[in-house]
UniProtKB/TrEMBL annotation, chain A:
This is Phosphoribosylformylglycinamidine synthase subunit PurQ. Its EC number is 6.3.5.3, 3.5.1.2. Pathway: Purine metabolism; IMP biosynthesis via de novo pathway; 5-amino-1-(5-phospho-D-ribosyl)imidazole from N(2)-formyl-N(1)-(5-phospho-D-ribosyl)glycinamide: step 1/2. It is found in: Cytoplasm. The gene is purQ. Part of the FGAM synthase complex composed of 1 PurL, 1 PurQ and 2 PurS subunits. GO terms for biological process: 'de novo' IMP biosynthetic process. CDD domains: GATase1_FGAR_AT. Keywords: ATP-binding, Cytoplasm, Glutamine amidotransferase, Hydrolase, Ligase, Nucleotide-binding, Purine biosynthesis. GO terms for cellular component: cytoplasm. One of its GO terms (molecular function) is glutaminase activity.
UniProtKB/TrEMBL annotation, chain B:
It catalyses: N(2)-formyl-N(1)-(5-phospho-beta-D-ribosyl)glycinamide + L-glutamine + ATP + H2O = 2-formamido-N(1)-(5-O-phospho-beta-D-ribosyl)acetamidine + L-glutamate + ADP + phosphate + H(+). Its main location: cytoplasm. Mg(2+) 1 binds at residues 105, 551. One of its GO terms (biological process) is 'de novo' IMP biosynthetic process. Pathway: Purine metabolism; IMP biosynthesis via de novo pathway; 5-amino-1-(5-phospho-D-ribosyl)imidazole from N(2)-formyl-N(1)-(5-phospho-D-ribosyl)glycinamide: step 1/2. The lineage of its organism: Bacteria, Bacillati, Actinomycetota, Actinomycetes, Kitasatosporales. GO terms for cellular component: cytoplasm. This is Phosphoribosylformylglycinamidine synthase subunit PurL. The gene is purL. Keywords: ATP-binding, Cytoplasm, Ligase, Magnesium, Metal-binding, Nucleotide-binding, Purine biosynthesis. The active site is at 58, 107 (proton acceptor). It comes from the Bacteria.
Amino acid sequence: MTARIGVVTFPGSLDDRDTQRAIRLAGAEPVALWHKDKDLKQVDAVVLPGGFSYGDYLRAGAISRFSPVMETVIEQAKAGLPVLGICNGFQVLTEAHLLPGAMLGNDHLHFICRDQKLRVENAATAWTSDYSEGQEIFVPLKNMDGRYVADEYTLDKLEAEGRVVFRYLDVNPNGSLRDIAGITNEAGNVVGLMPHPEHATEPLIGTGRTDGLPFFTSILKKLVNA
Amino acid sequence: MSRTPLDTVEHAAATPDVELPWAELGLKKDEYERIVEILGRRPTGAELAMYSVMWSEHCSYKSSKIHLRQFGEKAPENDALLVGIGENAGVVDVGQGYAVTFKVESHNHPSYVEPYQGAATGVGGIVRDIIAMGARPVAVVDPLRFGAADHPDTKRVLPGVVAGIGGYGNCLGLPNIGGEVVFDACYQGNPLVNAGCVGVMRHEDIHLAKASGAGNKVILYGARTGGDGIGGASILASETFDDAKPSKRPAVQVGDPFQEKLLIECTLEAFAEKLVVGIQDLGAAGLSCATSELASNGSGGMRVTLDDVPLRDSTLSPEEILMSESQERMCAVVEPEKVDRFLEICAKWDVIATVIGEVTDGDRLEIFWHGGKIVEVDPRTVAHEGPVYERPYARPEWQDALQADDANKLPRPETAEELKAQVLKLVASPNQASKKWITQQYDHFVQGNTVLAMPEDSGMIRIDEKTGLGVALATDGNGRYAKLDPYTGAQLALAEAYRNVATTGAKPLAVSDCLNFGSPEDPAVMWQFVEAVRGLADGCQQLGTPVTGGNVSLYNQTGEAAIHPTPVVAVLGVIDDVARRTPVAFQEEGQLLYLLGDTREEFGGSAWSQVVHDHLGGLPPKVDLERERLLAEILISASRDGMIDSAHDLSDGGLIQAVVESALLGGKGARLVVPDGLDAFTFLLSESAGRAIVAVPRSEEVRFNDMCGARGLPVTRVGVVDGDTVEVQGEFELTLAELREAHEATIPALLA
């Protein structure tokens, strides 16, 4: 058997097809979900993809967070449904309060697209079990509003509870506090990160690395073995 | 344009003596008289508005038309061409049932006035041209030219343009895979912002801009119509800038990439359900262009009720509605029984769609406002029968003196130390330096099909996941060469783009161009234009790559000073399997470096003459298109048969620039040996065309040499991939670290 993983398309989502491809490459079945539809079609996990949903107008993720589909995602995530938010999806997750903190504009005020080195800090979440803790990987990063911020108390709590999942190495590309690239919720089922693992799944494409594929194999194994 | 009483057709006929502001709208007196003659009466205000924008230089190509015909007349036989010049974009067969459409356009003038929005809407416009052909856009490229890198205004224009291209293109989800950034003082008041887009479709999905079938509905969909960009085509793009006139900012449109992304998705969904008979995007000249072109390309006439156009500003006059260049709008012709489904798809994507008229069986375009008929014209007279000028042209007096000022006679470095210093200065100069600071502001990963992106020789996109079929696109132009000799300069641009495509392993198929020149009213500029067009048309004929479409941008001048003539050429190629692409970066130590082609003493227009001597004179490098074709065949065969692991074309900056780029990208150095018969200076810095440098694994050395020998391509072993320095034996050695510092620090230091 395989797992069915939903990918939400909001108006302005850009990496929804790429994410579906990555899910397929990992061996799972991608299922397209539509923002106006509350029905999650009985998927086993959900990815909120990158892009500029609603043009990032008002604030990145601020409008999408109120989409009909998000009502169900929020409800089921709280009940344990694995959810991954990539870039704009991460922004939606913080706006939806499924993850703490917020995303501000990059400190250098430019869009940035680069092959980013990361350290895996937590290999115990639903989405990172195929990595090992401390592993260093390269995953493409591309964003305008990628500066992760939270109050000191929250940051300390995240660190103490091992909820920082990825940290930027060598270069902090956007001014994120404590070099945070991705975090998880207390239960470890919801993960958000700014870099784009779906763009690092094929040896010929993009940077030519496949360091992002373990995201999708991690969740597949978890779901199939569950 | 008085609206009380409404200036209807009837009213115009009854009041022949009313004075209309034709001059303010950019029309010449004889042009106005011709409109009166065509109509047999004075035009209404609305008709005048339509004619004025459609007969502008930007829309009518009135100065360039008679010369552009050569692209058709000299078009080589090419089975791959499915749709040629005249449609929104050309379409090329790339095999396996796929067709590719591509085009380059300019958005030069708006980008100087308002860099961010000018550049952003340039991307938006070219993307809509591609959608209008029925294709899904898969990549964009941006050839850019700015004034001197250290001029204060460049710091205003460049970051705005780059942010605008990124802000719009990134938000649309289109990978930016190539282009150029060139600095030259001649572009100070006239930056060139060219934008190209590639789209992919199945053969059966090609759509054309025509309105056929009486009773079919005309649907306007996308953004509401506002007051932005009114007269953009006529006033902004078709006149020389003049400090004395008021700011032209209101004529620049404002873009909304989010709306455009929705427009892409809903248009493609409507195509997939075969709901569309004809389609046209609204770009320059807005509704005037879309209605008159759709009607004149179809079999019948068209009736439009302007009151039904959704407005952002309810106070707009009908003339303004017709002229508005509000972005993110398209016009589709749909059979009546399919209208509901079309509107449903638009609603799904939250796109406003309105039936504004229908196709009629007459031959007139009629437009109504508040119940009165304000336009009644033969649409062909608006769209296709504009004025045609045979502008006088003459070789400028200064051309001989310029060519006699031979760059080959400039003082050359006398010692190895001097040569080393000049090489370091060259790779750090703004034109030769790394453009990473710029290109990292563009998303080149989105869609997950990018095989190669800048700084590779050409961008490459996979279009079929199963077979690995892909397309490559390169754009090139060199205004310095073209200034020295516009005919040769245009061919060098073509040759370089052609070579760049082949260097990556793809077979060059077709050409699009963006011809950027000064004022056609200056005979010297017109001569440059005529020569460049002739050079390009002859070159395309010889290489067998037809011109499928393109764009002309004139009036790129401030006062008397025109830009360098700058034909920018885009070449599209196809590759059977992207797994066989050849990258620029050195891959493995020990691989042998071979120089393909002949190196002559050619420094006219070279980067060296600019960087070291601030000189422009002499003749550009010679062009040998048969040689280019042979070189391309060798590069493609070598890629297909696995004989080379990296390749880089040689162009501005010569061999040393290419080696430094390959070394820095691969993180591996090179040891070079000056070949017999050449001096180190010429070997490293000459810009002879028809050359490339390749890295050959030792196991392939014999086979590769045999192939070149059998086909008669000169091949010279010039070194080996090795170590962490670039060493020219007996001359100098530079570490990768110092080269990287020199090459990568320049642009951020100037612009960040």
